[in-house]
Write a structure and sequence with these properties.
single chain; rod-shaped; 87 residues; mainly alpha; 0% strand
């Protein structure tokens, strides 16, 4: 039972053939990579702007400095009477 290598057919694979096959399966990006980076940067800046808009809100709510409108002070309650409760 001897196995000879001459009877086994091995396809000829070279590095240049692998490069050509690898190039055929790539997909083009719809934009340049710099455009993707610019869109991400602008998106993060917009989210930072939203976050910046709500800065200090927790302290304002905890201190009772929330204004509910002009009719709030007319019902005879002061802002310190609530102590965290809401009517």
């Amino acid at each position: 039972m001897s196995l000879s290598l001459s009877s086994v057919s091995v396809p000829s694979v070279s590095l240049s053939n692998l490069v050509v096959v690898a190039e055929e399966h790539t997909r083009e990006l719809p934009m340049s990579p710099y455009a993707f980076g610019a869109i991400a940067f602008v998106s993060f800046l917009a989210l930072l702007g939203v976050l910046w808009g709500f800065r200090g809100t927790a302290q304002k709510l905890a201190a009772g400095h929330v204004t509910h409108g002009s009719g709030h002070q007319q019902d005879g309650h002061a802002a310190t009477d609530h102590q965290g409760s809401h009517h």
